[in-house]
Every structure is written in structure tokens, then in C-alpha cells.
Design a protein that fits this description.
Order of helices and strands: HEEEHEHEEEEEHEHHEEHEHEHEEEEEH
Shape: globular
Strand content: 15-25%
Radius of gyration: 20 Å
Number of strands: 19
Number of helices: 10
Length: 353
């Protein structure tokens, strides 16, 4: 691999929040933003990668999984990467697709030499809009105290000894949002062991089905959605209330910028995220909602700390670690951000604090 290709790849990975580890020639070890370790063999060149080139470099047998690196790629290459056929790192953006999961730069202190595309105002260019929910999952919604749900009564699920079943609930969300998934891909996305994913799938029992090719899917999407609605108790965590006279979109944008500067990995959720997913919330009188990994003081952006019942924005440090694993890039008030998945956004759109 050419030195300039390696330099550009390293800069892009760092700008996306990957932590680089040991490098041995073209084989690199790194840690994903969801804290999952990975080892990949980098294959690429200085030019745009085509589908025929990707097949030669990405379809490897034996050895480490390939990470295709290039400034850009054809639509076919990107589509295959989104389906998990190979991993892809594009410097022009930058953006990475690892095991079908997209990672895009959202202004978290990227190095100055990282190859970034910017708009005329100097901001990181907006990421691709998230895909809508699959048919049968987004429709036929009924009002629910826990978000946008279905009225089908879920079957009882086994107890988990008093501990929140974060992995079980996240597995269901992924099957609903992304369709059939093999255990290995679910494991990679959630950053947990295959054994943990296998136990979660067993706990869902008759709600899920394993195809002959090994991919798991919902037997009935709306019914699994109803079961998730009935079982999920929320992301938990510490919630603080803030007040600002700006409209909700601008409040969310301002809070995200502060949290990004502090390395708190913010996620926009609630009604704002739901609209970004193309779903109109049934109720829209709650505060804006932003999730962060660590507590953040928003006073520097003009916010005032208030009681929750007076808040125009709530900041949550959730206990559920999977909210980041299922998040997706979007644009809010002209700013490239990351939003929670539509099921989580629907749950929090009701100002459930």
C-alpha cells in the first residue's frame, strides 16, 4: 500500500473516532467508536474504487477481513458495503462502513490533515439521510405511553434476574430496522459476544426465525415491534433539564456542538430525530432530547439549568449502551449530527423522563 494512501486512511479513521492500535504492514488493529476491537487488512489506491476492483480486493478467502480504502467509490461498492459484503473507508467525507454500519464525521475534533469535504459555510457536509423503516414496521401506529407503537398484545418474555436486557432489546430493534441479520453481524454492531446475541435470540423465542443461510429475522414485524414496545422500559440513566429561548431545532444543534467539543458523543433523539427518519410524531409538545455519554454543562451555550417540568431541552446520560450502536447519521438545523434509531426516537418523542 502506498504511503500516501496509508496516511490518508489513518487521518480518516482518526477523524471518525476510531482508535488505532498495532500496525503490521497493511494489517491494522483499531477500536471502533462503539469500543469493539477489530483487525483489518487495508486494500486500496489513490483513485475511485469500482465494483470490479472491490470484488478483487474485498472478496478474500482466509486471513483478516479486508478494509477497502479510497477517496470515493461507485454506488455499487457502497451498496454492497452497506449490506456487509466488505468494509469500506472513503476519505472524501470521510465515511466508513464496517460490517454494514456507517460511521460519519460529526465534528468531534478531527485532525487538521484529515481529508474532509466541507460546505460553503465551512461545516462538515451533511451525511446521507437515514433510510425509512421497513414496510410493516412504520405503519399502523397507535398512541402508546412509550412512544409510537402497535396495539398487538406481546407474548410474555422471560425475566432477566432484575437486570435490564439491553442486548435482547437491541437485537429486536436491529431485526426490525435492518431486516435479516446473521449472528456475527449483530455481534459486531452491538459490540457484544456471539454467545450474548445467541442468548438474546433464544429469549425472543417464536418472535424470531433463523433461515437456512443463518440469518435471523422477525417472524412478523408488527408483532415483534409490539413485543418490543411492551418489554422495553426505556434507556434509563441521569436526566437534566435545560431552558433556552431558541426554537427546539436550534437548541438541539447548540447542545450537540457543546457535547461534541467535550467528546460526549451526542445523539439527537425524540421528535426531532423521528422527523429526520421521516416519521411525524403524534404528540409534539415535549422538550428537545439529546443523549450523551457523560454529563455536559450547557451554560456556555446560553442554557439555564431548570427543573425537568420547565425544561425546553433534556440531556440524558443513558444506562442503555446500545443506543449508540443503532444510531445513524443525519442533519439537524444544517449540522451533521447522529440521531437515535426511529424506535428509540419514537420512545423518547413523548418526553418520557
Amino acid at each position: 500500500m502506498l504511503e500516501e494512501v496509508a496516511t490518508a486512511s489513518e487521518a480518516a479513521l482518526r477523524s471518525l473516532g476510531f482508535r488505532l492500535g498495532h500496525k503490521s504492514a497493511d494489517t491494522w488493529a483499531f477500536t471502533l467508536p462503539n469500543s469493539r476491537p477489530a483487525v483489518r487488512t487495508l486494500r486500496g489506491d489513490r483513485g475511485r474504487i469500482t465494483l470490479s476492483e472491490a470484488r478483487k480486493r474485498g472478496d478474500q478467502h482466509g486471513g483478516e477481513r479486508a478494509l477497502l480504502v479510497a477517496p470515493s467509490a461507485s454506488p455499487g461498492v457502497i451498496s454492497a458495503a452497506r449490506l456487509g459484503r466488505w468494509d469500506l473507508l472513503l476519505w472524501d467525507g470521510p465515511e466508513a462502513l464496517i460490517n454494514g454500519v456507517s460511521y460519519a464525521a460529526v465534528g468531534m475534533g478531527a485532525p487538521a490533515d484529515a481529508p474532509r469535504r466541507r460546505d460553503r459555510l465551512g461545516a462538515v457536509a451533511p451525511a446521507t439521510a437515514p433510510a425509512p423503516l421497513p414496510p410493516g414496521v412504520a405503519g399502523s401506529r397507535a398512541v402508546s405511553p412509550h412512544g409510537v407503537g402497535h396495539s398487538t398484545e406481546p407474548a410474555p418474555l422471560p425475566h432477566t434476574g432484575g437486570r435490564p436486557a439491553w442486548t435482547r432489546w437491541a437485537v429486536a430493534r436491529l431485526l426490525l430496522l435492518r431486516g435479516p441479520q446473521p449472528v456475527g453481524r449483530l455481534s459486531d454492531v452491538l459490540g457484544v459476544s456471539r454467545q450474548a446475541v445467541g442468548r438474546a435470540l433464544q429469549q425472543w423465542g417464536g418472535w424470531v426465525h433463523r433461515a437456512p443461510d443463518g440469518a435471523w429475522s422477525a417472524v412478523n414485524g408488527p408483532q415483534l415491534r409490539a413485543a418490543w414496545d411492551g418489554a422495553y422500559s426505556g434507556p434509563g440513566g441521569v436526566v437534566t433539564g435545560w431552558w433556552h429561548p431558541l426554537p427546539p431545532l436550534q437548541q438541539a444543534r447548540a447542545a450537540v456542538l457543546v457535547a461534541q467539543r467535550e467528546g460526549a458523543w451526542p445523539l439527537v433523539s425524540g421528535s426531532i430525530a423521528l422527523r429526520s427518519h421521516g416519521v411525524e410524531p403524534h404528540v409534539d409538545n415535549g422538550p428537545a432530547c439529546v443523549l450523551v455519554r457523560t454529563e455536559v454543562d450547557l451554560a456556555s451555550a446560553g442554557f439555564q439549568r431548570v427543573e425537568l417540568d420547565s425544561a425546553t431541552l433534556v440531556l440524558r446520560v443513558p444506562h442503555d449502551p446500545t443506543v449508540w450502536a443503532t444510531a445513524t447519521p443525519a442533519t439537524v438545523a444544517g449540522e451533521a449530527v447522529v440521531i437515535t434509531d426511529p424506535l428509540m426516537a419514537g420512545f423518547l418523542a413523548w418526553g418520557d423522563i
